[in-house]
Amino acid sequence: MNNITDKTRIRWWIAGLMWLAIAINYIDRTVLSAAAPHLIDELSLDPEMMGFIMAAFFWSYSLLQIPAGWFADRFGQKKGLGLAVAWWSIATSMMGLATGFKSLLALRLALGVGEAAAYPSNAGIAARWFPDRERATVSGLFDSASKFGGAIAMPLIVWMIYQFDWRLTFLIIGSVGIIWVIAWYFIYAENPEDHKKISQAEINHIRQGQRQKHGDKSVLPMRWYKLLRYRNIWAMCIGFFTINYTSYFFITWLPTYLVKDKGMDFIKMGMVAALPLLCGMVIEVLAGWASDRIVHKRILSLTATRKLFLTLGLLMALCIGFAPFTDSVFMTVFLLCVAKSGTTVAASQVWALPGDVAPKNSVSIVAGLQNTVSNMGGAVGPIITGAIVAATGSFTWALVFSAVLVVIGILNYLFLLGKVEPIVIDDPKTADLATVQQH
Fold first, then answer.
1. At what angle do helices 231-252 and 363-392 cross, to 10 degrees?
2. How far is residue 273 CA from its own chain's centroid?
3. Predicted local distance difference test score (pLDDT) of residue 36
4. Number of C-beta neighbours around residue 401 at 10 A
5. Mind giving me the DSSP string for 57-117?
6. pTM for the full model?
7. Which residues are paired to 436 by β-bridges?
8. Which of 246, 236, 258 is nearest to 341 (CA)?
9. φ and ψ at 424, to 5 degrees?
10. CA atoms 103, 106, 109, 114: torsion sign
11. Which among 136, 69, 146 is positioned nearest to 355, based on CA atoms?
12. Residue 164 phi/psi, 5° resolution?
């Protein structure tokens, strides 16, 4: 048997692929926004048509979270994530062949179908491949890729469209995901024990550090609606809704806010708008690592640690409500960077929670349920913000309303979220039929 000095690091190669999957995910969903002016001109689309095309992604993305999570838990994350990335990459490439409104709408819906599996699958992989004390670290790591993808996507894609054209840009961006899929099928194995290159020392490190050892094929995932019996599931869904409501402001209305309310020119706005995302990317990884250290060193319990970082993150996110009340552009940008970083501190815990509380072999479906509700915040947030701006003539009350939801999120995590521990099933081999209880 290998000793500790022989321990491989296969799980961190897998973490790197998880990070890349989310980065590709966010770049692919952003291509359409950058190419929109060209599409409108060449395909004779009016703004209303383009609005429907852009929104179509969220329809299928939100609705398919739970089925995608169930598929990953039932048939394995190797198939779940691999097929998903292949699907959405092909859909991205085919957008370069679009001829009008109907084809673009259908391909945008297809993109949402594929991308729905990314986060639920990654949450399940984190639970299978990492010991509990590394869960928040890897969760913060893979989710940080969304900020990286969001920050670099727009300038990268605009440059590519300028160098080539929009049709070829879709094809090139889509092909990156296909390369990822090839690497995924060569590197990933469903369970640590199945990997040909892993050492026994690393298997021991992973499995001996897990309270629940996911991957037993005889254990069925729990039916999603039975998860709604538990207050922790409700707390996870409600809390993530409030986080995502605020988060989506930074990738929807922030450029307009900086130009219209703060008087920035377009070029300066393009650089400044990326700062909150880049700050959030770094802070999220650090927060995940710090929370794991606190739990591992037994400074605080798992429950206290999760609640501490969720609360601290959302207290930082409250800064979004103060941003409109300063005349200093520097202070506004600083407050927005703090607010976005706060949402990522919370997100590092949000994506660890499914592995903390899910019944055996049900991590992906818990993550999918949580993400379904959270994306409703992303779906309605831009609409509510737009309505408030239209009614008041500024973003002030829209940002204050976002801060109010953050307060609700804090109260939710402090009082509705109970002890963070796995949901226990009487007979795990009939999880979908069992009478369940949480101890």
1. 50
2. 19
3. 77
4. 16
5. HHHHHHHTHHHHHHHHHHH-HHHHHHHHHHHHHHHHHHGGG--SHHHHHHHHHHHHHHHTT
6. 0.84
7. 425
8. 246
9. -100, 135
10. negative
11. 136
12. -115, -115
Task: Decide if 225 contacts 32 (C-beta within 8 A).
Answer: no
In three-state secondary structure terms, 251 is: helix
Radius of gyration (C-alpha) of the chain in whole angstroms: 21
pLDDT in tens, 206-219: 999 988 777 666 67
Distance CA 325, CA 69 (A): 42
Work out the mean pLDDT of the chain and round it to a whole number: 88
- Residues contacting 303, CB < 8 A, separation 6+: 418, 419, 420, 421
Token pair of 56 as six digits: 């179509």
Parts of the chain with a pLDDT under 50: 1-5, 428, 430-439
Report the C-alpha gap between 321 and 312 in whole angstroms: 16
Pick from 162, 205, 196, 169: nearest CA to 92: 169
How far apart CA 24 and CA 230 sit, in angstroms, is 34
Nearest to 171 by CA among 31, 296, 56: 31
Pairing type for strands 436-437 and 424-425 reads antiparallel
Give the integer Cα–Cα distance in Å for 140 and 123: 11
Q: Which residues contact 37 (CB under 8 A, 6 or more apart)?
A: none
Phi (first) and psi of residue 117, to 5 degrees = -85, -10
Q: What is the pLDDT of residue 406?
A: 97
How far, rounded to the nearest angstrom, does the alpha carbon of residue 15 sit from its chain's CA centroid? Answer: 15
- Supply the DSSP string of 411-431, one letter for each residue: HIIIII-----PPEESSGGGT
Q: Which residue has the tokens 């094929």?
A: 217
d(CA 145, CA 25) in angstroms, rounded, equals: 9
Structure tokens belonging to residue 337: 């960077």
